[in-house]
Amino acid sequence: MRIVVQQQPFDPGAQMNAFAAGRDDLGAIVTFTGVVRDDPANPLRQMMIEHYPGMTERALEKIATEAQTRWSLGDVLVIHRFGPMRPGEQIMMVATAARHRKDAFEAAEYLMDYLKSRAPFWKKEQGADGEGWVAAKDEDEDALTRW
Amino acid sequence: MIDVLYFAWVRERIGIPREQVSTDAATVAELVEELRAREDRYAMAFSDLSALRVAVDQDLTDFDAPLKGAREVAFFPPMTGG
User: Fold this and answer.
1) How many domains are contained in chain A?
2) Looking at residue A70, which CATH number applies to its domain?
3) B82: nearest CA in chain A?
4) Is the pLDDT of residue B2 over 90?
5) How far is A72 from chain B (nearest CA, A)?
6) Does the distance separating the beta carbons of A119 and B7 come in below 8 Å?
7) Distance (Å) of CA B15 to CA A131, B31, B69
8) Structural domain for A133, as ranges
9) What is the pTM for the complete model shown?
């Protein structure tokens, strides 16, 4: 398991190639990359992500460890950035490796659902018309009930 | 003494990211009452607890959680990771 919380950008391609490299017992790798989305109706200048150093790493480890107990996984990677980002930049990435694809897909979805509302990150959007904190969505909280 | 941390709009409303608080509060809710009584900016930040989340020693918990032995309490809005 590898958990990375950093301000600087990362290279998803390089991360994917390095992930579970040399593990020929793992037949499935799933990756998800989250990207800063622009809104043509209200152009985004910058996204600022705040986090809670210490608790962030702890929460991500807890979520990844739970995924490992629920599914048969060979490896798990979570990278999440904080600080200022522009539209199109990668915010975060999860990768899961398993013998079979079902475990890898489900675990990746689980990680994403929990990352959304149980990891201490907060997004602030800064656009031409001012700035505001992104509100949590009820559907993100509801998504946890299926696990 | 306990370290109290604020994040996102809670931090903005209160105006500081963290402070040390001398308190005898037995629970998070009692600590919130003490903070509310201090100044308007605290009363505003804590006006609607349903819009807030709390962590004690970096674990997410509830407002009725005990504070005995706690070193750090953090208040913040619902998280928006991913």
Assistant:
1) 1
2) 3.90.1170.40
3) A116
4) yes
5) 23
6) no
7) 17, 18, 27
8) 2-146
9) 0.95
d(CA A74, CA B2): 41
What ipTM was predicted for this assembly? 0.95
Instruction: For residue A89, give every residue at least 6 positions away whose Cβ sits within 8 Å of its Cβ, in sequence order, or none.
Output: A9, A35, A36
A4 lies within 8 A of chain B by CB: no
Task: Write out residues 16-55 of A within 8 Å (CB-CB) of B.
Answer: 34, 50, 52, 54-55
Taking only the tens place, the pLDDT of each residue in A81-125 is 999 999 999 999 999 999 999 999 999 999 999 999 999 999 999
* Chain-centroid distance, C-alpha B69: 16
Place of tokens 């990150």: A121
Domains and CATH numbers, chain B: 2-76 (3.10.20.30)
Report how far Cα A72 is from the mean position of its chain's Cα atoms: 20
Instruction: Read off the amino acid at residue B28.
Output: V
